[in-house]
Amino acid sequence: MKYIIQYLSALILFIFSTFAAWYEGSAIRENPWEWKYTAFFSNINNAWIIDGSDISQLDHFIYAAKFYPIFPILMVLSFSYLVILSGYLLFKYDTKKLNIFLSSFGLIQILLGIMVSDSPTIGGKTFTVTFLMIGMFSSALSFLRMKKLYKEAL
Predict the structure, then answer these.
(1) Which pLDDT does position 1 carry in this prediction?
(2) Intra-chain end-to-end CA distance of the chain, in Å
(3) Do 63 and 97 belong to one domain?
(4) Domain boundary residue among 22, 49, 67?
(5) Taking the C-alpha atoms of 6, 9, 10 and 11 in order, what is their torsion angle to the nearest 10 degrees?
(6) Residue 73 and residue 116 in contact, taking contact as beta carbons nearer than 8 Å
(7) Looking at the predicted structure, is the pLDDT value of residue 75 above 80?
(8) Is 143 exposed, middle or buried (0-12, 13-18, 19+ CB in 10 A)?
(9) Most buried pick, 20, 58, 63, 85, via CB within 10 A?
(10) Are 25 and 63 in contact (CB under 8 A)?
(11) Are 39 and 55 in contact (CB under 8 A)?
(12) Do residues 22 and 14 lie in contact, with contact meaning Cβ atoms separated by under 8 Å?
């Protein structure tokens, strides 16, 4: 029962923050000077963006992440919590697999943090810190569980 409450809480937060980030990111339609730098998905699909209706819905999230990072960060945190909770429930009886899962997830988060680290926007800097913190937390959790397993084996 306690896992169902955790799942539902994280899922509700994820859905709410997704809609809020999408709404905040819709401001890209009124800022044509940002289309060249932020409309990544629209530039892939279309050769030219003529007006705001050519902007992809996914670009709303990029714009929100760059300039209004609160709800995109909540999306990342709630999604990461859902992933870690799912991994824990899936591998809670196999400590080695859980450690591999946690350390892999931590490595992915650290790599994501490094990928966005050169962004000059406030959102890019916030995402760098967020990804690195989640990655370090997941890696530390894996290390502590491994250390506990090693002590129990002695």
Answers:
(1) 82
(2) 35
(3) no
(4) 67
(5) 120
(6) no
(7) yes
(8) middle
(9) 63
(10) yes
(11) yes
(12) no
In a domain, 139, yes or no: yes
Same domain, 55 and 97: no
Q: Is 73 within a domain?
A: no
- Among the listed residues 66, 56, 57, the one whose alpha carbon sits nearest the alpha carbon of residue 19: 57
Examine residue 88 and state whether it is found in any structural domain, yes or no. Answer: no
The percent of residues in the chain predicted with pLDDT above 70, rounded, is: 93
By the 8 A CB rule, do 87 and 102 touch? yes
Query: How far apart are the C-alpha atoms of 29 and 43, rounded to whole Å?
Result: 14
Residues 63 and 111 in one domain: no
In a domain, 85, yes or no: no
**Residue ranges making up the domain that contains 133:** 93-154
Q: Is residue 2 domain-shared with residue 62, that is, in the same domain?
A: yes
By three-state DSSP, how is residue 48 classified?
coil
Is the CB of residue 38 less than 8 Å from the CB of residue 72? no
Task: Tally the domains of the chain.
Answer: 2
Q: What is the pLDDT of residue 46?
A: 64
Residues 49 and 100 in one domain: no
Considering the entire predicted model, what is its pTM? 0.85
Q: Which two tokens stand for residue 115?
A: 């990928």
